Amino acid sequence: MLLKSYLFFLVVATNITIANAQADSIAVVPDFKFNEGIYLTFNEFKANSPSIINFSLQYKGDNTFLVIDCPDSIADTKTCYVENAWGYCKDRSVYKHQGYHNNYYRLQVIGALIHYYVIEMNFYDPMMDNSYNGISAAPVRKVSNREMVMEWETGRSFEFVYKNFRIYLRENDIQLFQQLESAKRKRKMIYYYLLKYNELHPMYIKH
Length: 207
Known about the structure:
The protein is α+β, with helices and mostly antiparallel strands. The chain has helices at residues 2-23, 42-46, 162-172, 174-182, 190-200, and strands at 25-27, 37-39, 56-60, 63-71, 77-81, 87-90, 93-97, 104-109, 113-124, 140-151, 157-159, 204-206. The chain has one domain (26-120, 147-206).
């Protein structure tokens, strides 16, 4: 009897602790408003606390530059570019740096799983293609899109395809995994189950 009372007290105390932890936090739901600014690190993004608030965007071709005012050696103000930022938030949309050059990907869905598209540009020599009969050997650019998913907790990313997603669900939510496996059009249902996963596994940010 004493053991049962202790276990009951432990469950109640745990629930109270969780409730108190979430009382000063807000869930990252689809209409969550991230603070505008430049996130220098992934942790700044997760905390919704950008290091740099005042900035502007400058576009040159396919490149996006993050511009801020900065003093020079004689205290005059000039413009500087912010390099190697994790990303930024502008007009309620969050953009993640692609890892090289000055291109950013817009995060389409933000939650326990973050969904976004990457744009890849590959160059190939048409002279290596036997079906090509032209004279010019100039490289040809091929642009392709891929869907990616990033984990909120770890920042780890993987390509959002059925094979990868089913493995993720099997390791993290066996009930959703079983639902996906029993779906008739399972390969076309992964986006729905991504949203369902986020709904069942809410992330919180302190405010």
